Amino acid sequence: xxxxxxxxxxxxxxxxxxxxxxxxxxxxxxxxxxxxxxxxxxxxxxxxxxxxxxxxxxxxxxxxxxxxxxxxxxxxxxxxxxxxxxxxxxxxxxxxxxxxxxxxxxxxxxxxxxxxxxxxxxxxxxxxxxxxxxxxxxxxxxxxxxxxxxxxxxxxxxxxxxxxxxxxxxxxxxxxxxxxxxxxxxxxxxxxxxxxxxxxxxxxxxxxxxxxxxxxxxxxxxxxxxxxxxxxxxxxxxxxxxxxxxxxxxxxxxxxxxxxxxxxxxxxxxxxxxxxxxxxxxxxxxxxxxxxxxxxxxxxxxxxxxxxxxxxxxxxxxxxxxxxxxxxxxxxxxxxxxxxxxxxxx
Length: 346
Hints:
By secondary structure, this protein is mainly alpha-helical. It contains 14 helices and 4 strands. It is globular.
């Protein structure tokens, strides 16, 4: 199989192109015209992010003898990750701001792709600097930063609001309460597979376009003509362009897909089998709440759910179904996976 490769030092697969595949050396072109070459364009980086006395030479390394590449990309990578004299300090701020946005719903800098003059000012600049420094000092490992954020007072505080604070900061720019953040489309699907006990934990290997596959949603191929409909409904990006923050919409088809989608129904049936009670239906309700929501049901919820299961089972028996109890329990599980509490971090 032939693959079209665009890289220095690798012979290109020729199509209908004319001339060179790579220009060596590169030139500044007048009005972008390759026939109007100006001076040679040597490698350099943004001056405002170069604090080394020798400028770009600080990161450039001569390519070893016989090497097929120029080592320019190596120099670029070293400059980007140099937190002392290159762009690494800015890179660390951008990373931790994206993580904060993921966990809290809004970044310390509300414009995660624009830290310049046209972007928003950070609401807590000292916190941003501290998190960025901590990331660099811990070897750029992301898991400790995730842990810090998820064990912070900001992440674990209540979602309750009060009128006095609302008057001071209605938009919650200072993070004085915990906003409800909906899970991403991929995570909603993965959570349904997890609670139903059908999630395939296998890692690595090839992806697929099959919407019935049981592995995590990250293993879906992204093909623009064959996107997974359920994830599109929950605002999964179309991969045509990069986005700094996903839109979060609330539409009627989202509720309809949770009630009528065959894959969701199959998950509810598997969930019901997982909690099949040996005795009373109340035991199944308690087990289901613990698995799906991470908490026990209240007394009112328990009574209401037990009554719902009994009513559904009676309706199925009236239709002559021999598996009425199993179907009623699956209906309860479907209801539980459709709750806001299941698809929101609150």
